[in-house]
Amino acid sequence: MPAEEEKWLVWGVEEILRIVQDSQTKSDVGMLDESRMVLAELELPGWVTTTDLGAPLEALGAFYARSGNLE
């Protein structure tokens, strides 16, 4: 079910972005402006890596590539 897979992948990306954005409102580290974040400069807990943050984005991109939706 591609629609179901897309729904969950989009949810994962939205959650990662929400968490990162919430953490940045407490600390301005990693922010270039209000709409752009630099993952490498985030103050992450020791148990979270930038790979953890990028994995949902990569999975959603792979899904769209498989679906032929490259935009």
Structure, briefly:
By secondary structure, the chain is mainly α. The chain has helices spanning 2-26, 50-67; strands at residues 31-33, 36-37. 61% of the residues lie in helices and 7% in strands.
The shape is elongated
Q: Work out the oligomeric state of the chains in this entry.
A: single chain
Widest sheet, order of strands: 1-2
Instruction: Kindly report the average pLDDT value.
Output: 80
Element pattern in H and E: HEEH
**How many beta-strand elements?**
2
How can the largest sheet be summarized? 2 strands, antiparallel
How many helices? 2
Strand content bin: 5-15%
Rg calculated over all Cα atoms: 14 Å
Q: What does this 3D model show about the protein?
A:
This protein has 71 residues and is mainly alpha-helical. The protein has two helices and two strands. The two termini are 21 Å apart. Strands 1-2 form a two-stranded antiparallel ribbon. The protein is 61% helix and 7% strand. The protein has helices at residues 2-26, 50-67, and strands spanning 31-33, 36-37. The mean pLDDT is 80. Helix 1 (2-26) runs antiparallel to helix 2.
